[in-house]
Amino acid sequence: MQSLKEELLELLEKDKEFRHAVAGLIGYKEVLERITSLEERVISLEERIVSLEERIVSLEEGQQKLEERIISLEERIASLEEGQQRIEGRITSLEERIVSLEERAISLEERMVSLEEGQRELKRMVSVIAHRFGVISENAFREGMRAVLEEELEVAEVGRFIIEDEEGLVYGHPSTVEVDVLVKDGRHILVEVKSRVSKGDVAELHRIGELYAKKIGVKPSLLIVGGLVDEGARELAEKLGVRVRPVID
User: Fold this and answer.
1) Number of other CB atoms surrounding residue 67 within 10 Å
2) What does 104-130 look like in DSSP terms, one character per residue?
3) Element housing 167 (H / E)
4) Which residue of 101, 175, 224, 245 has the fewest C-beta atoms within 10 A of its own C-beta?
5) Residue 120: which pLDDT band, with cuts at 50, 70 and 90?
6) How many domains does the chain have?
7) Residue 62 lies in a domain
8) Is residue 106 one of the residues assigned to a domain?
């Protein structure tokens, strides 16, 4: 081997063609090695490209699924919006119907109030006419008007109050005085019901009011309800502060 090496070295030094041939062989080997390396890198790149393509396909599939879900959500939202619009429309319709019913209820209440007022007025007129023609007595007229008065003043009952007038303030001599009294909202109201109201009736109620204030310690309001009211009675009532309420004006 040593001899062979020496011969090869000598040939490389002296034989130019041999030297070039050896150099070519050495370069060809390097080229082959480089080609092999490049092929391996190409194979690696191809594998990476395949992997990337697979990932791209997976991403595209995921994107498609996402787009399908978005479309489904948009359709559901559109459906919900349509349902909301339908519900809002029904609510609006119900509100309009409620308003209409409330207006009808108010109208019915107003008609009922009007009918009740007309009924009360009719009762008064019937009572006055019946009393005028002797169909009912004075006591019956008074009781009928008291019932109407209780209804109109919205009180449970007009009570009868008895006062002992020892000084004779009302009639000029000691006597027992009776009067209808109602208390509403802290006010004491003396009420007298007459089929026909005269000046004497007004003056009598005024004196009873003075007696009541002296005995009870409360100044009362005075009210006369009458079927017919004399003109002189109206004038005197205005002077004395007595309220006169005719059944029929």
Assistant:
1) 10
2) HHHHHHHHHHHHHHHHHHHHHHHHHHH
3) none
4) 101
5) low
6) 2
7) yes
8) no
